[in-house]
Amino acid sequence: MDAKTKKVIRDNVGGGADKVSFKKDGAIVFKRSYFYRHGYSAEKFGAAIEERLTVQGFKIASLETRDAWAAWPRDSYFIATVRLEGSRL
């Protein structure tokens, strides 16, 4: 994935994420930390990321979500891992 595409994803899609990582295998990992869920879930976070990617014109090949809960004082995260069509699998 080229630097321009990564910048578009970070700036326009990753707005709801605390961290956006691009893996060598083509996966894009979005992480959002939380202390209280307040009705939010990993699935809702994944759906928001999917919608933002679609609006920017990206086609999603796969989307996986998970809730990485940790007891206080460690941080808990909602994680969405996305693979775009045309990425190396």
Notes on the structure:
- The chain has 89 residues and is of the alpha+beta class.
- It is 28% helix and 34% strand.
- The chain is built from 2 helices and 4 strands; from the N terminus they run H-E-E-H-E-E.
- A 4-stranded antiparallel sheet has the order 1-2-4-3, with helices on one face.
- A hairpin with a 7-residue loop joins strand 3 and strand 4.
- The two termini are 13 Å apart.
Q: What are the key terms here?
A:
about 35% strand, four-stranded antiparallel β-sheet, alpha+beta, about 90 residues, single chain
Task: Describe the protein's topology.
Elements: H1 3-13, E1 19-22, E2 27-34, H2 42-55, E3 60-68, E4 76-84
Antiparallel strand pairs: 1-2, 2-4, 3-4
What integer value in Å does the Rg equal? 13 Å
Fraction in beta strands? 25-35%
Question: What's the total number of strands?
Answer: 4
Shape: globular
Structural class: alpha+beta
Low-confidence stretches: none
Strand order of the largest sheet: 1-2-4-3
Portion of residues within helices: 25-40%
Overall average pLDDT: 91
**What string gives the helices and strands in order?**
HEEHEE
Number of helices: 2
Distance between the termini: 13 Å
Please describe the biggest sheet, giving its number of strands, its sense, and whether it closes into a barrel: 4 strands, antiparallel
Note the quaternary state here.
Answer: single chain
